Amino acid sequence: QVQLVESGGGLVQAGGSLRLSCAASGFTVGSYGMGWFRQDPRKERAFVAGISGGTNITDYTNSVKGRFTISKDNAKNTVYLQMNSLKPEDTAVYYCAATRGRFLALQSTYDYWGQGTQVTVSS
After folding, report:
1. CA triplet 58, 112, 51: central angle to 5 degrees?
2. Residue-wise pLDDT tens digits, 40-78
3. What per-residue confidence (pLDDT) applies to 40?
4. Which of 28, 44, 50, 73 is the least crowded, having the fewest Cβ atoms under 10 Å away?
5. Contact between 106 and 45 (Cβ < 8 Å)
6. Cα angle at 75 between 72 and 77, to 5 degrees?
7. What does the alpha-carbon distance between residue 113 and residue 98 come to, in Å, rounded to a whole number?
């Protein structure tokens, strides 16, 4: 059965770093586009970062460019989001997802979703 399990969230001070992990089962992450999305109480779920299947082309929302890095480890069937220089506005529940579509930022095309992991950044 397909499953995505996020981990690595927590509480960190502004300027600090966290690495989120997304462990996949039931499919191969190298054959799917993988994305990270986030949602806080004031907003609907929004795209953060994505990496395409095979070619590993990446895309990021403007607010995280230069601070966040998405990557895959195909041997571990795991996707990561390295988050540096964290800001209070990064506080949200972060979700991992998988898509067979070509547009990484278009969340309506994602087929599988994880349960989310909380990231809280204090000032």
Report:
1. 5
2. 988 899 999 999 998 999 999 999 999 999 999 999 999
3. 92
4. 44
5. no
6. 55
7. 7
CB contact at 8 A, 23 and 77? yes
**Which residue type does 103 have?**
F
Model pLDDT, residue 54: 86
Using CA atoms, how far apart are residues 97 and 17, in angstroms rounded to an integer? 22
In terms of Cβ atoms closer than 10 Å to its own Cβ (0-12, 13-18, 19+), residue 45 is middle
Location of structure tokens 């547009």? 103
Spatial separation of the C-alpha atoms in residues 115 and 93, rounded to whole Å: 9
Q: Give the whole-angstrom CA distance, residue 47 versus residue 118.
A: 16
- Residue 32 is given by DSSP the state S
Look over the chain and give the mean of its residue pLDDT values, rounded to a whole number: 96
The amino acid at residue 41 is P
SS3 for 38-83 is EECCCCCCEEEEEECCCCCCEEECHHHCCCEEEEEECCCCEEEEEE
